[in-house]
Design brief:
By secondary structure, this protein is mostly beta strands. It has a single domain, classed as 7 Propeller (Methylamine Dehydrogenase, Chain H), CATH 2.130.10.30. The chain contains four helices and 30 strands. Strands 1-21-22-23-24 form a five-stranded antiparallel β-sheet, with no helix packed on it. The protein has a five-stranded antiparallel β-sheet with strand order 11-16-15-14-13, with no helix packed on it. The chain starts with a strand and ends with a strand. The relative contact order is 0.15. InterPro entries: RCC1-like_dom (IPR058923), RCC1/BLIP-II (IPR009091), Reg_chr_condens (IPR000408), Ub_ligase/GEF_domain (IPR051210).
């Protein structure tokens, strides 16, 4: 689960040499503490083992997946920690790194500048704009596209479903069944449940499946590999959902691969698996040119069912939720696609969106940041306002209630009054925002302390976290935890 701040141009800045970069963490990472207990308040993560010659250990935070955290060191290494061997696929994906943060062994010496994690797959971008990915094998490009059969099930589909041993993070905690539409795989959410005993059983199943694999074709995990993109394509940032991936090029074109059964790849149909990177048709492809000196124009790509054209010439920001996606154009327009059961596409309905579709109620508002969780989406505007829509079972929208919102709703809570949001991030069922003046707010699900407020009480409105002695610079949520990049004051 992930999102971006105010566009790709927003980088974490180190304004003065000599200031120490710190990473704070709170929430639940099974391998972060020997007693395997949640971390209810922010703690500093330190690892002198990879401090570089400048003395700065950290460069950025990337959130992480289910049961592990990710960050980038000042020297460009991808750092992971927090996993345990009974998490099965997640343990393998995170590099089997437990309590101590360690560099992930990538097959390149290039510096990592961006990274993202889904349920149990990861993707990283090097300073040469190449992309590496690894983890859950179905999320890794293999060069073929698998579509749904027109009638009946296939052996291939049955095999796929037998490997689909997700934890309850993919299951509605209130046993809300999912709609069946267009032949999509809906078994994940119709299982119901959500109790810890169920989670342990499924984690155990994942572990057994991984350990029992004997050949490369059968294994659930893929080693890090270079993603094959068209010649000249240079990726600047990436986003990872439950089982799908989006990548954004330097000319503002979106590429996607992985599972697309609810339309989260934006290709106009329910494609079960896209196993090679495909361009996602957000706006007119002719707009993707490095020389964009002309004034902003209207793209000629009309999204499905829309009677107007999408504002913008390229995409600037991307985000992936559990099974939906969101992008922002350079004109500040938001497009969403994918699973819509909880209104997470912001279209005023609970329909799936198979193609990128403008969130029309936000047109006229310059949106600069977007993040997505399992069932919700949160945006920030150029004015620093926060808009949220989708599932709200734990207060993750921050509206003060638990009612789902199918249209974007402005958060007018007094807690954010006169503050400008700068960075937004979403975990599975919680949200976090960093304001222009360095204040940190979290809200939503708090069973594992992922709000950092010292308790396990859910919050339905943004609640401020006080961290003394540092200047917050960036925030990133994992599934059950939150990471904060900060700078020492002197």
């Amino acid at each position: 689960m992930n999102g971006e701040g105010r566009g790709e141009e927003m980088e974490v800045e180190v304004e003065e040499v000599g200031r120490e970069q710190l990473v704070y963490m709170w929430g639940y990472l099974p391998g972060a503490l020997p007693q395997r207990s949640p971390i209810l308040s922010p703690v500093v993560i330190r690892s002198p083992a990879f401090v570089d010659s400048t003395g700065h250990a950290w460069k950025d935070v990337c959130g992480g997946g289910c049961g592990y955290a990710m960050a980038i060191s000042e020297s460009g290494k991808l750092i992971t920690w927090g996993s345990t061997d009974d998490l099965g696929q997640s343990y393998i994906t995170s590099g089997k790194h437990g309590e101590i943060p360690e560099p992930f062994p990538l097959p390149t010496e290039a510096s990592i500048v961006r990274a993202a994690a889904g349920w149990a797959h990861c993707i990283a971008v090097t300073d040469s704009r190449e992309v590496y990915t690894w983890g859950w094998k179905e999320c890794i490009p293999s060069g073929k596209v698998i579509g749904y059969p027109s009638t009946g099930a296939t052996l291939e589909k049955d095999a796929f479903e037998s490997q689909n041993v997700f934890s309850t993070e993919q299951v509605s905690p209130k046993s809300q069944g999912s709609r069946s539409s267009g032949g999509t795989l809906t078994s994940i959410d119709s299982r119901g449940g959500g109790e810890d005993s169920t989670k342990r059983r499924r984690i155990s199943a994942a572990k057994q499946a991984a350990e029992s694999s004997s050949s490369g074709d059968e294994t659930l995990s893929a080693l890090p590999c270079l993603v094959a993109l068209n010649p000249g394509v240079r990726i600047t940032t990436v986003a990872a959902g439950g089982r799908h991936t989006l990548a954004l090029s330097d000319v503002g074109q979106v590429w996607g691969w992985g599972y697309g059964g609810e339309g989260q790849l934006g290709l106009g149909s329910r494609i079960r698996m896209v196993s090679s990177p495909h361009p996602v048709p957000c706006i007119d492809p002719s707009s993707y040119a490095k020389d964009r000196t002309a004034a902003l124009t209207w793209g000629s790509m009309s999204s499905e069912g829309q009677g107007f054209r999408v504002p913008g010439t390229c995409v600037k920001v991307i985000a992936c939720g559990g099974r939906h996606s969101a992008v922002i154009t350079d004109a500040g327009a938001v497009l969403t696609f994918g699973w819509g059961l909880y209104g997470q596409c912001g279209q005023g309905s609970t329909d799936d969106e198979l193609s990128p579709t403008c969130v029309s109620s936000l047109l006229g508002i310059q949106i600069e940041g977007v993040a997505a969780g399992l069932w919700h989406t949160v945006c920030i505007s150029a004015d620093g306002d926060v808009y949220a829509f989708g599932g709200n079972q734990f207060g993750q929208l921050g509206t003060g209630g638990d009612q789902a919102e199918t249209l974007p709703r402005l958060l007018d809570t007094p807690n954010l009054e006169n503050l400008q949001a700068k960075v937004i991030s979403c975990g599975a069922r919680h949200s976090a925002v960093l304001t222009e003046d360095g204040k940190v707010f979290c809200w939503g699900w708090n069973k594992y302390g992922q709000l950092g407020l010292g308790d396990v009480i859910d919050r339905k409105i943004p609640s401020q976290i006080t961290i003394e002695g540092c200047v917050p610079k960036n925030i990133a949520c994992g599934w059950w935890h939150t990471l904060l990049l900060a700078e020492s004051p002197t």
